[in-house]
Amino acid sequence: MIRNLLILSLMACVLSAQAQGTFQFDVTLTGTKEVPPNNDPTVAMGVFTLDGNSLSFYVDVPAVTFIVRSGYIQGPVLSGTNGPVIFDLGGPVFRPGNDFGTPPVCRFFSPFEGTFGAGPFTLSASQIKDLENGLWYINGTTDSLPNGPQLVL
Question: Which of 3, 15, 22, 40 gives 51 a disulfide partner, CB atoms 3.0 to 4.6 angstroms apart?
Answer without folding.
Answer: 22
